[in-house]
Each structure stands twice: as structure tokens, then as C-alpha cells.
Amino acid sequence: MTKLYIVRHGETEANRDGIIQGHIDRPLTEEGMKEVQKTAEKLWHIHFDAVYSSDLLRAQRTAEIILLERQLAVKTTAALRERNWGKFDGRPTQEFYKECAEALKIFEDLTHEEKMSFQFADVESHEKIAIRLNRFLREIAVTHDGQTILISTHGGIMRAFLIHLGWGTFENLPSGSVKNASYFVLNCDGVDFFVKEVHRIEKQENIS
């Protein structure tokens, strides 16, 4: 088994100001760096054999803080990027909710499978980002068989992947459940994934 630590970046200016980031890059805030430092302290005893990050600055910086004083280079890839929010990238979150109000009503009544594939305007679907992460992590598990790997990425893709795995649902893992600088740990044999630990991911257990 390969052990994978999947970490979300710390708070950014866009997170703080209610702006959709997607593929738009924003730096970590001072609070964001403090959040990541707390996660780094929690993981200080873990020996990482390799580190991969989204090529967006906020994720790279998060990986660098966690790796402070460790002799490891961060390998970046677009495969770990956040959801592409299309025309909504860089715009206030409320504008998405306003412009997609009707689509959101339709979304609520869909089946799980339909929700995964549903696409809001030109926004990347849950299914697409979950499959993107799934494919990358399987490749990493095969390449680093038996090792421990740090992955620095984004909240939206982490949530979609956990729902894809069946660890959560759209209802008990709503948007915002994956907090800044949170993480989950997976074991992977190159095919299947097993969730072993979560930190700062708020699953609402009383909802099916």
C-alpha cells in the first residue's frame, strides 16, 4: 500500500473575501500561513518520500511550509488544480448562486450519479475533477509503491473525490466542509482507495 496525505491549502485572500478562485491564483493570507503551520506541526513526525502539488501558488506555498527543513523538492502538476469555474473564476461567490439559481434547484432533486455529472454553465463537473484526481493518485500509488506521499491541492477537488469514494455524500459533506489546511489520509494499492484518517473535514453524521 502507498499512503497518501491529501492536504488543502491555507486561507487565501479570495477565500477571505468570498471570491471564487478556481484556476485564478491568490496568495495565502497571514491567517492561512498560520493554519498551514498548525497542520505542519501535526505532520512533523511523518516521513514523506515525495511531494506533489497543484501548480497554483497557494497549494505550492502550502507544501513548502509543511516541508520546511525537509530535503524534498515539490513537484507541480495541473492535474491537482482546483475545479475550473469557467466564467465564474475570480468573481464573487454570490454571483454564481444568483446566475445559477434555477440550475441549483434542479440539482437538488437529482440522483447521486446525476449530481456527479451535472455541469453548471462552463464549470467543471464533480465527476470530471474526481476522475482527474483518481487517475493521478493511482499513478502516484504505482510509482511510489509502499511509500508515503504528500499531495497539496484544493478543497473542491478533495470534496468531490471523497464523495466519489463513497466516504461522504452531497448532503452530509456540503460545500465548505473541507476546511483550509485540512487533510485526509488514504491507503492505495494502485486501484482501490481506503480512507484512514481525516482532519478538519466536517462531515454531518446525522444526515444520510
List keywords for this structure.
alpha/beta; six-stranded mixed beta sheet; single chain; Rossmann fold; 38% helix; 8 helices; 208 residues
- Computed over alpha carbons, the radius of gyration is 16 Å
CATH architecture: 3-Layer(aba) Sandwich
Pairing-aware structural class of the strands and helices? Answer: alpha/beta
The ordered H/E elements are EHHEHEHHHHEHEE
Strand content: 15-25%
> Which quaternary structure do these chains form?
single chain
Parts with pLDDT < 50 across at least 5 consecutive residues: none
Describe the protein in words:
The protein has 208 residues and is α/β, with parallel strands linked by helices. It has a single domain (2-201), classed as Phosphoglycerate mutase-like (Rossmann fold). It is 38% helix and 20% strand. The chain has a 6-stranded mixed β-sheet with strand order 3-2-4-1-5-6. The chain is globular.
Concise synopsis of the structure shown:
The protein is 38% helix and 20% strand. The protein is of the alpha/beta class. Helix 7 (126-143) crosses helix 8 (155-165).
Helix and strand topology:
Blueprint: E1 2-8, H1 13-17, H2 30-42, E2 50-54, H3 57-66, E3 74-77, H4 93-99, H5 101-108, H6 112-117, H7 126-143, E4 148-153, H8 155-165, E5 178-188, E6 193-201
Parallel strand pairs: 1-4, 2-3, 2-4
Antiparallel strand pairs: 1-5, 5-6
Helix pairs in contact: 7-8
